[in-house]
Design goal:
The chain is mainly alpha-helical and 292 residues long. It is built from eleven helices and four strands; from the N terminus they run E-H-H-H-E-E-E-H-H-H-H-H-H-H-H. It has a two-stranded parallel ribbon. Helix 9 runs parallel beside helix 11 and helix 10 runs antiparallel to helix 11. The protein starts with a strand and ends in a 5-residue tail after the last helix. The mean pLDDT is 96. This is 3-methyladenine DNA glycosylase. It comes from Saccharopolyspora endophytica.
């Protein structure tokens, strides 16, 4: 067991809160003012980890917090020799199943080469053949208008591998996709070039809260923010008024830019994915060392 002094864990907790506050505090202000943000709201609405939970630091498993009695108010912490720590009994059968599923999914994803030919067309397929009032971000114009957007969707092959993106395709766009990914296909199809799979590292990290260190959750969240920005810059929406310069995937230059950035994110996400894989293994071994 690693022992953190009171000064050490308090410094880590403060640094964590300050780091994520750059996103949580503006989100709260927008909520108070009833202002929607087409890029950043996604990180707090599609994903179910509340800002207060994101701000809350924890050390992960196998760590003792010296003089950490204030953590006893949190579920899963108990007094141990030298301080306070998470207890293995807190990992219920349901949480163990989650850890095993996440380990299997991330390991399968990491074993595959990145596919980089989707060009972010999932966002275009979500507005294909819609009426102006039916689009998800109706307060923002489409760069090419509805007809131009439909022409782009019809002019390029669509190869989305991510079920949670595909399920938002319009009914007219679904048959145009190379695959028809379902929830049952997730472990078989998920691949490391997918922007949504890389954003979802945040989801898999917080699904194992409080057993995942706060810093790892924050690292995954920060990556998700930057990936989401590319996701929406490459979308059919014109968000230049918010400072997001379009990545025009309808042009050869735009597609090349998208692929370059997609590849960089895939490489960065690989390190985080491996850290989550290792963390899942650590959690399972910590809770049941004799059976892992």
């Amino acid at each position: 067991m690693l022992v953190l002094s009171k000064q050490e864990w308090r410094e880590r907790r403060t640094a964590h809160r300050e780091r994520v506050a750059q996103w949580t505090e503006p989100h709260r202000r927008r909520q108070h003012q009833h202002r929607a943000h087409p890029v950043l709201d996604f990180l707090f609405t599609y994903y179910s980890f509340r800002p207060a939970r994101l701000e809350r630091w924890q050390p992960g498993v196998g760590v003792v917090l010296e003089n950490g009695q204030e953590f006893l108010s949190r579920k899963g912490f108990t007094e141990v020799p030298g301080g306070v720590a998470l207890e293995p009994a807190a990992l219920t059968d349901k949480r163990r199943d989650s850890a095993e599923f996440i380990l299997g999914l991330l390991s399968a994803t990491a074993s595959r080469p990145a596919r980089l030919g989707c060009f972010g067309l999932h966002e275009w397929a979500m507005v294909y053949r819609t009426e102006p009032g039916d689009v998800r971000h109706s307060g923002w114009p489409l760069r090419l208008g509805h007809d131009g957007t439909d022409e782009v969707v019809e002019s390029m092959p669509i190869s989305c591998t991510h079920h949670d993106a595909f399920r938002f395709f319009t009914p007219q766009a679904r048959p145009l996709n190379e695959l028809q990914p379902s929830r049952a296909d997730q472990v078989r199809l998920e691949q490391p070039g997918c922007l949504h799979a890389n954003m979802d590292l945040f989801k898999w990290a917080y699904k194992l809260d409080p057993f995942v260190p706060g810093e790892l959750i924050a690292d995954c969240f920060e990556l998700a923010v930057r990936v989401r920005e590319l996701d929406m810059c490459a979308s059919p929406y014109d968000l230049s008024e918010l400072g997001y310069e379009p990545v025009p995937i309808e042009t050869p230059q735009g597609r090349a830019d998208y692929v370059r950035r997609q590849r960089e994110f895939a490489e960065e996400a690989a390190g985080l994915r491996q850290r989550l894989i290792d963390t899942c293994r650590d959690i399972l071994a910590w809770a049941a060392p004799s059976s892992v």
